[in-house]
Amino acid sequence: MHAWPASEVPALPGKGRDLRIHDTATGGRITLDPGPVARIYVCGITPYDATHMGHAATYNAFDLVQRVWLDTKRQVHYVQNVTDVDDPLLERAVRDGQDWTELAERETALFREDMTALRMLPPRHYIGAVEAIPGIVPLVERLRDAGAAYDLDGDIYFSVDADPHFGEVSGLDADAMRLLSAERGGDPDRPGKKNPLDPMLWMAARPGEPSWDGASLGDGRPGWHIECVAIALDHLGMGFDIQGGGSDLAFPHHEMGASHAQALTGEHPFAQAYVHAGMVGLDGEKMSKSRGNLVFVSALRRDGVDPAAIRLALLSRHYRSDWEWTDQVLADAVERLARWRAAVSRPDGPSADALVEEVREALADDLDSPAALAAVDRWAALQGAEGGTDEGAPGLVSRTVDALLGVAL
Description:
This protein is α/β, with parallel strands linked by helices and 409 residues long.
């Protein structure tokens, strides 16, 4: 599966800072010091209704991570999946009378268009669940043969007791996990499971649903968590730098994925940091497909909203915050974009050397994009009030905003 085209990232003078980021597993900030190649895995969409502002906010956060690392002169090995076969996708296809593969392909194409418009840097590897199945089956077989998985009426379940580190990613107790498992695709009340929290690794073929040859597992399709584990281990290996996604993925998805990988390899941890973006709400509720309260990037684009303004709206809120999308948030972003473009359109201005370092420091400090925007605001205000004599300043500001914030002025 192909990703989307990359926009050019301007080179800035000097060198960026190492990233200090909040790690869900430890509950505090850690300083990441990757080697020459930084490794990141971000969980992708289930393509049945893409791309709403919650998606955009999450991928914007991890785009900033890439940009901070690139500014330290590292390479970035970024991997993202597409869950292109799953219950929600199949249910939507049935509801709308569509072929599920056509629905997935259409929504994935729309997601690519939105990511391109928002100037999100693409992953090096963009992998669909379906194309990953040949690599998933052997992992499930290994877990079963090692006693870390078991058969229940043809379905294969992972035993969470097989991983002594289970629970360390989310830090939740068993009762909280059980509630969230029921809400987020698990089946804690299914009779016959060894532990209510045990997740499915391989679902035996159901009538009227797609299935694939699972070798000794029988025909079926993969569970949600093992999909990402197979892709991450194949392309990044154990101990990669960041496992990322929305905060609703900390449990069960990232918790279960870490345990799958740790049981498979005997190594710990799966990722050095588990980084989670906050939820975006609308009308007082989390923006989600199930609630139908979605604001789509593509709809805003069709209405003529500049994608740079959409990106600035996302950047105006800290990535870990839960926040509300409103017309005013977008209006403020449109106005800010106009001010910045007016400021850099002049032939000279106040020195921008300090601004570059302010933006770098803000983003290195747990991706503090509001502080980075405030720094550019101050330069633009000074440009408007006093101007300056540095002929290179407007160009340097433009390159800084482009390289570090992904906004083209």
